[in-house]
Amino acid sequence: MRQLASRARKHVEDGRPRFPPTAAQQRRLVAAFADACAGGDMAGLVALLDPGVVWRSDGGGKVSAARPPAAGAQQVARWLIALARRPPRSLRMATVNGAPGLVMRDGDGVLTVIAFTIDSGRITALDVMRNPDKLTAVPDPG
């Protein structure tokens, strides 16, 4: 029993999912996430987010961060709903770090890539990249 708890703690510390989704499950969850954001569905977003979800952004440099780090399903969902009030110019699902993610051109014209970490059927982390120096090889979603 202690060994199971130790392994679980190590997965959490490493940021690795204990129960990672299949590619199809991740695509469905990312699509549901995009739909909930676009529809302003707060309850739907909260249902997709792990209670301890974290939002991280690479901000600084040539563009502003998408948001300071945030944690918790309610806080992250509120931020996402606020962002959705100004819809992106273009949005598409893409492979990000080997898994389904999103690539968008936001309302300000900034290219943004969102990578998802999913565990046990919920989004546990959103990593948002906006630094154009890091995104030179990313095709425009439009």
Please tell me what the overall shape is.
Answer: globular
Radius of gyration: 15 Å
* CATH class type: Alpha Beta
End-to-end Cα distance: 51 Å
What is the structural class? alpha+beta
CATH topology tier name: Nuclear Transport Factor 2, Chain: A
CATH architecture annotation = Roll
Mean pLDDT: 82
**Helical segment tally?**
4
Q: What fraction of the residues are assigned to beta strands by DSSP?
A: 25-35%
Which residues sit in consecutive blocks of at least 5 with pLDDT less than 50?
Answer: 1-13
Q: What percentage of residues falls in helices of 4 or more residues?
A: 25-40%
The largest pleated sheet is described as: 6 strands, mixed
Kindly describe this structure.
With 142 residues, the chain is of the alpha+beta class. The chain has a single domain (19-129), classed as Nuclear Transport Factor 2, Chain: A. Helix content is 34%, strand content 30%. A six-stranded mixed sheet has the order 2-1-6-5-4-3. Helix 3 (42-48) packs across helix 4. The radius of gyration is 15 Å and the shape is globular. The relative contact order is 0.20. Residues 1-13 have low confidence and may be disordered.
